[in-house]
Write a structure and sequence with these properties.
By secondary structure, the chain is mostly helical. The chain has five helices and no strands. The chain has one domain. Helix content is about 70%, strand content about 0%. Helix 4 packs antiparallel against helix 5. The radius of gyration is 17 Å and the shape is elongated.
């Protein structure tokens, strides 16, 4: 195995595999934080939410942005960039940016660094969770399109 090879899919590389696993771990931690918040355990919610939001910020910069070097982009994407199923990649990026901005606002408003003048924080937190969920789904689908689909195994959609 070359140093740039991955371990989850035949055409992947290690950065994409780490991004997928990290994305899923952060999402599962956010799900635990949501359950803790719904049960009234706000201390546990804060102890999970703060590191995940801050960690995701650095995760996006270190893993995902640096993994978007041109040589890591599949040839099919460069040759046919406007096919409809490649819009999933753009959707993942847009939803991910929106989720990170919303999560940052919730973090800062929840810790009272920012004032809570834009309505109830509860609704912003649910919006963040929904957008974060959509970003994770699009991220998994992006991984599927880029690294699992091969000419021998065409995509399902």
């Amino acid at each position: 195995m070359l140093s740039s090879d991955g371990f989850l899919a035949p055409a992947s590389y290690l950065g994409a595999d780490l991004a997928l696993v990290g994305e899923i771990i952060f999402y599962l931690l956010i799900c635990v934080a949501v359950v803790a918040q719904r049960r009234g355990n706000y201390h546990l919610h804060d102890r999970i939410q703060i590191p995940v939001v801050v960690g995701n910020f650095f995760f996006v910069i270190v893993i995902m942005v640096l993994s978007l070097r041109y040589e890591n982009v599949p040839a099919e994407f460069v040759e046919r960039p406007f096919e409809p199923f490649y819009l999933v990649v753009v959707s993942h990026a847009v939803l991910g940016i929106a989720a990170q901005l919303l999560a940052t606002y919730c973090l800062l408003a929840g810790t009272k660094i920012l004032p809570r003048k834009i309505g109830r924080l509860r609704y912003w937190m649910w919006a963040t969770f929904i957008v974060w969920t959509a970003a994770v789904v699009m991220g998994v689908y992006t991984y599927y399109i880029w690294y699992i689909v091969t000419p021998e195994r065409p995509h399902l959609f």
